[in-house]
Amino acid sequence: MATIAPLLAQIAALPAKDKPAAYRDLIAALFAPNSPHLAAIPANVDALLTEIVSDGGPGLVVARPVANDLVAAMVDATTVDTNTKRRLYEIVIDRLTPRLVSFEDPVALAREKLSAILEDEEEWTEAARMLMNIPMDTGHRQVTDEYKLRIYIHIVRLLLEDEDSVTAETYLNRAGFLIGPVHDPVLQLTYKMCHGRILDAKRKFLEASQKYLELSYAPQLHPDEKNLVLQKAVTCTVLAEAGPHRSRLLAQLYKDDRVHRLPQVFVSMVEKMYLGRILRTHEVSDFSETLAGHHLAKLADGSTVLDRAVIQHNLLSASRIYANISLAELGRLLGVDAAQAETTAARMITERRLLGHLDQIDGFLYFQTQGVLSSWDARVAALCGQVDDVVAAIQKRAAVPAATA
């Protein structure tokens, strides 16, 4: 096992002007094929870094470029495996961080590369922490807004893999201050995707669905990716609390031809919810298999977000069928007890997502027809249909070739 201690002693004895070239030659020799120093490369790198940052070392004028060259050589090295590189980056960070002001660039590069290795090993949070500690605004290192944005968005993506939406939102907010001036379409798209995922994780399903629906039209996305984003839009719409806002999103999805080309489980849920049909247990069970882990988390009452959404939807569907219904019968229809049915109905009535009133003495729920609103909606729908007919006629006319003279 060859040590570089004698070589370091020789370089230390050289005139100052000759030291930079000597250190460069040493670094090249460390990572050269068949180098005798490769067997002990971690110890040799540690010795080199210890030498250049010591009080008796070559000084910062020489030490800075040596540290930069050393980390660059690690990145490009093909003679060491990934596990060894991981150890080398850790040594760089350990040795240079105490003097970070003088060595920000090599430490930042080492953290980026170590984060990439951790990401490949699916150590998401540790990979994110590596990037979090990259110096950004110290005043000693000039970094562009685009670089900061790229790092912040990468941190967000890593944290979301471990479902840490709280910390991820902090870094998304930092990215939000930088996204405007940066015109990189990939960064813009990734930022929007992360924003949608955080809204989804925070159970702001209506906002998340709108964000996903917007992304599904992005020309930069591959068709398969557009379908996945559209599935997310459907999922968030289904999980959202029943009400007028969700009804508008359901209408938009139902009328989107792309939705009807998705897997049948998504098509079925959109169709049944839009048409106001009662959802059956097996349909809900099939849909639940497509959900992510955070969608299946238990709420305070022991139910899931999907359970709540289905109960509210079925309650609205019942309002289209019944003029009134006993709470006991409503509970059986919704698959819950009468008390939970009453609580759900009371909340939806209070929030004006359901028109009706409760008779708690007799245990009945009376539904109120929408009257004028229903008539207004019907007229709007008829007008939209007429506009569609006009557009179709214009398109048909434009498609007919001009008659020859």
Automatic annotation (TrEMBL):
Keywords: Cytoplasm, Nucleus, Signalosome. It comes from the Eukaryota. Residues 207-372 form the PCI domain. Transmembrane segments: none annotated. The lineage of its organism: Eukaryota, Fungi, Fungi incertae sedis, Blastocladiomycota, Blastocladiomycetes. It holds the Pfam family PCI. Its main location: cytoplasm. It is found in: Cytoplasm; Nucleus. GO terms for cellular component: COP9 signalosome; cytosol. SUPFAM superfamilies: Winged helix' DNA-binding domain. This is COP9 signalosome complex subunit 4. Belongs to the CSN4 family.
